[in-house]
Amino acid sequence: METLDRRDPMLCSGHAACPGCMEALSARHVLARMGPDTMAVIPPSCMAIIAGPQPYSSLRIPVYQPTLEASAAAASGLRRALDAQGRGQTQVLVLAGDGGTYDIGLQCLSSAAERNEDMLYVCLDNEGYMNTGAQKSSSTPHFARTSSTPEGKPTRKKNLTGIMAAHGVPYAATASVGFLPDMLRKIERAKAIRGFRILTLLVPCIEGWGLEDSGGMEAARYAVECGAFPLYEVEDGTRYTLNYSLRPRRVAEYLALQKRYRGLSASDVDSLQSEVDQGWAWLMRLIQPEDVPALP
């Protein structure tokens, strides 16, 4: 295998991501922090399109593309094969979308978490099956319009981080490229831990969310600032730490950026605000006062 320096780009230019794609930007930072001694597992997803087919992958590390439901099982097998070769230092990284994580791959993911398999699982959460026509997933938020829910999704978004924390895994966290220092710190922390680790990164989709071409970063920040996507981490399933405690925006400001909420009634906007408030209150009950950061 080609020897790479950590300073070399792990994600090459010329890949197939859409202009303004937050997923490609997020993956670039993940890969840069993981370094060249890493092997990736990438199921069918937007990331699989970005990575491209072997041997012409845009990633400068080995990539295995399994079936959509089998990412965690494939990563488990890869980890054990590397360990058998005496390559325990090589990281096994999963880069999967929300369809292959929240939905189709959840059974496999839960099993790997229960076994505490040594891998870093990164869910690139764009809240839908975006590369096949923007259908809804169980990560799609309530009332969001997709090609399969044109009148708006009738159910809430699944709490993946809470589900994975309930497995008692060593590390589970949310992150956003809109808050880059926090995201990079969490990647480094997860890399240093052994056992099962999972990061869920919110990656606004320009086309699927109906954003302005340059609106991905703004949406990523607004999601956190209104509390729709809180930044927190959970150690060993019990210790919850909040990483961003401010809520300077109303949910309505976040929704206004996105065409998938166009025409939403005032009562539905109020309902979404109430849901976000309820989710925030749930999170606050799990966090000790000393774990809330004192931000200016």
Automatic annotation (TrEMBL):
Note the PANTHER family from the entry: 2-OXOACID OXIDOREDUCTASE (FERREDOXIN) (PTHR42897:SF1), PYRUVATE SYNTHASE SUBUNIT PORB (PTHR42897)
Thiamine pyrophosphate enzyme TPP-binding domain residues are 65-197
Q: Give the species.
A: Ramlibacter alkalitolerans
* Record key words, sorted: Oxidoreductase, Pyruvate
> Where is there biased composition of kind Polar residues?
134-150
**Superkingdom assignment:** Bacteria
Record-given protein name: Pyruvate ferredoxin oxidoreductase
Which parts of the sequence are annotated with region: Disordered?
134-156
Any matching Pfam family: TPP_enzyme_C
InterPro entries, sorted:
PorB-like (IPR051479), THDP-binding (IPR029061), TPP_enzyme_TPP-bd (IPR011766)
